[in-house]
Amino acid sequence: MLKGIDPRLNADVLYVLRAMGHGDALIIADTNFPSDSVSRATVYGDLLRMDNLTAAEAIEAILSVYPLDTFVDDFAGRMEIVDEPDTVPAVQQEVQQAIDAAEGSHRPMVGIERFKFYDLARDSYAVIQTGERRFYGCFMLRKGVIPPEA
After folding, report:
1. What is the rounded distance in angstroms from the CA atom of residue 65 to the CA atom of residue 51?
2. d(CA 94, CA 55)
3. Domains, the chain, ranges and CATH?
4. Residue 23 has what pLDDT?
5. Local confidence band at 2 (pLDDT 50, 70, 90 cut-offs)
6. What average pLDDT does the segment 132-144 reach?
7. Of 34, 88, 96, 132, which cross-links 137 as Cys (Cβ 3.0–4.6 Å)?
8. Cα separation of 73 and 77, whole Å?
9. Is 118 a catalytic residue?
10. Which of 24, 30, 66, 69 is catalytic?
11. 28-67: per-residue pLDDT in tens?
12. Annotated catalytic residue within 15, 22, 46, 123
């Protein structure tokens, strides 16, 4: 255990979050996403796991140390429901609440069509698979910067 570090963040996840740079994309995936095969194409190349957490719990822990990119509209994205791109299911609403709490304001995630999401995931820095069993529990978080003290 470390002081000030959310205990839900394991060593491998912390390593990757630290290694990522400004603008790099991180994928948080549900249990149905083809995480293993997709992760092999990423920059990191190996699948990371937070199996015992829902998507919202994992993202809440990640955002305790991970800044979102405030310079772009696609700072965070959600996989759209096939043929219902404007529908936002409960799992995605929970993640939006976690983002709002971490950021201190409401900025909605962008919707990403399912197959475009797969392509984005392959081009991402890394994939973290959660224990989320609800459908469409797949998200992208784009890393931002931490400004100087003053």
Report:
1. 19
2. 8
3. 16-142 (3.40.1650.10)
4. 98
5. confident
6. 98
7. 132
8. 9
9. yes
10. 69
11. 999 999 999 999 999 999 999 999 999 999 999 999 999 9
12. 22
- Cβ neighbours around 34 below 10 Å, total: 12
Average pLDDT of the chain is 97
Predicted model pTM: 0.97
Q: In angstroms, what CA-CA distances link 83 with 39, 86, 118, 136?
A: 26, 9, 16, 13
CA 109 to CA 83: how far, in whole Å? Answer: 18
69 catalytic per annotation:
yes
For 25, the enclosing helix (H) or strand (E) is strand 25-29
Q: Which helix (H) or strand (E) holds 126?
A: strand 126-130
- Token pair 């979102």 in the structure block, residue: 68
Q: Which of 144, 118, 148 is nearest to 27 (CA)?
A: 118
Residue 22 annotated in active site: yes
For residue 1, pLDDT over 80 is answered with no
Dihedral sign, Cα of residue 119, residue 92, residue 4, residue 35: negative
The DSSP-derived string for 51-119 is: TTS-HHHHHHHHTTT--B-TTSTTSEEEEPBTTBTT---HHHHHHHHHHHHHHTS--PPEEE-HHHHHH
d(CA 7, CA 73): 30
